[in-house]
Amino acid sequence: MKENPCRKAGSIGKGHADEMQFWTTDEFKKFLGKVSDKPQARAGFLILYYTGLRIGELLALEYGDIDFKNCTINVNKSYQHIRGKDVVTPPKTPKIVRIVSILEFLRDEIRNYTERLYGLHKHDRIFPYTKSFFEHEMIRGTKDGDVKWIRPQDIRRSHASQLIHMDFSILAVSERLGHEKVHPPASVRSPLSGSPWQCGPAATGRVRRIPFTGSVAKCQYQPKFVKVVHFWYTFKK
To answer: Which pTM value belongs to this model?
Structure first.
């Protein structure tokens, strides 16, 4: 091997705004197909892409944080691996604590994954791994060059960019992502003009005819986030 892939990947949390890259839905689906042989990788990346959670928030998720009935995830803590120890910490700011609505297909994916975990209890982490696991899986899923490599934190920015591309307000996106300050940073700018995302009248027309069965009662921007859920549900089909 001529090049060390870990050197290419760098470490999570570093880099500059001008180095940010994004995945469209088609790119993400290609990547997902390459790592789905590991159920924990498939479930983890689906959550990251369709919710915009931080990698530390994903790793801190406990079984009791998933509301399967109402299709929501309770985000209330973060995970770090410090000096060989797993450390779960409370949020640094109140904005990080939030209820994130999820798609029904994502709810079902999480349920199928957690059913594989023997003896799972309410306060058990559903992803008992470190950040390096997902770094290595991203290298594995992109090493053949069929899908461009991006950093794990850029999956979160892909989620934000898709919302901005669909004309969601910076305020609404910031609320969903748990940003402390509301401003148009590089992390939520949309580079997706001309992308394969179908954001035209035909797509939104189909969206409005699909009944919503999940719960977004705790979401301040209910109409917009219902629209997001329906759009992705339609796109999935």
So the answer is: 0.70
